[in-house]
Amino acid sequence: MQRVACLVSYDGTNFSGYQVQPRKRTVQLELERALTKLHKGQEIKVTSSGRTDAGVHAIGQVIHFDTSLQIPLERWPNAFNACLPNDIHIHEVRSVEPQFHARFDTVGKEYRYRMLLKKQGDVFRRHYTHTIERDINMERMKCAAQYLVGTHDFSSFCAANTDVTDKVREVTAIELWKDRDEVIFSFKGSGFLYNMVRIMVGTLLEVGYGNLSSEGVAQILAAQDRTKASKTAPAQGLYLWKVDYPNLVFHHNKNNES
Predict the structure, then answer these.
(1) In the chain, how many domains are there?
(2) Is residue 129 part of a domain?
């Protein structure tokens, strides 16, 4: 048996999230269905770096699985993709140590969130951006975002229905920039809580609208109370952009960095 890791992208629009759920179409279900086909009916389970919700996309999701197939690594993407639907794509496959774990070996992640600044919206980007129809102040949001950088208890920025008790996480960087008619948020950290990025986006938007001061974000963080933060930003603007490991680098990721 050989353990391999794959760099995966998917369009989350028509998925009920990543994780397998009864009677629902999920990314994990399609990946395992394709691998079972490749393995002539043998059931193959995959492990990912983490779950994504319904409507959330991935540019750089990472999975691992064990295989008995003797397919050369450079041929694995074509073989795997041939069995997958067209809203999932395998970019690269790497051989890893038998103890490698896609979830527990992560040392950092980057999420990006896309907002479309267009009062009339865009029918072709409605599944891939969150449309903002009001003016926003970028500088105020940049200032407010810095209060969220560092190691904190992010209880105020975590969905209330999570089972996680330890809500301390490290956010290493938050950046915002404008790309033509879009605003891009980048969130980097050692790990993120359920809905954490989307709640941070929703709260920073309130700063951009002028409804909340930059210092107010610090007060919300200190409160450790989900009811103090703003509503969760919609799923379709969120992308799992990149997952980092100490001893695994995907060439496609390096070529796609921006």
Answers:
(1) 2
(2) yes
For residue 53, indicate whether it is catalytic. Answer: yes
- Asked whether residue 111 is marked as a ligand-binding residue, the answer is yes
Q: State the SS3 of the chain.
A: CEEEEEEEEECHHHCCCCCCCCCCCCHHHHHHHHHHHHCCCCCCCCEECCCCCCCCEEEEEEEEEEECCCCCHHHHHHHHHCCCCCCEEEEEEEECCCCCCCCCCCCEEEEEEEEEECCCCCCCCCCCCEEECCCCCHHHHHHHHHHHCEEEECHHHCCCCCCCCCCEEEEEEEEEEEECCEEEEEEEECCCCCCHHHHHHHHHHHHHHCCCCHHHHHHHHHHCCHHHCCCCCCHHHEEEEEEEECCECCHHHHHCCC
Tell me the per-residue pLDDT of 76-95, one tens digit each, with 9 for 90 and over: 999 999 999 999 999 999 99
The pTM of the full predicted model, rounded to 2 decimals, is: 0.95
Is 33 found in the same domain as 145? no
Q: Which of 53, 122, 153, 163 is catalytic?
A: 53
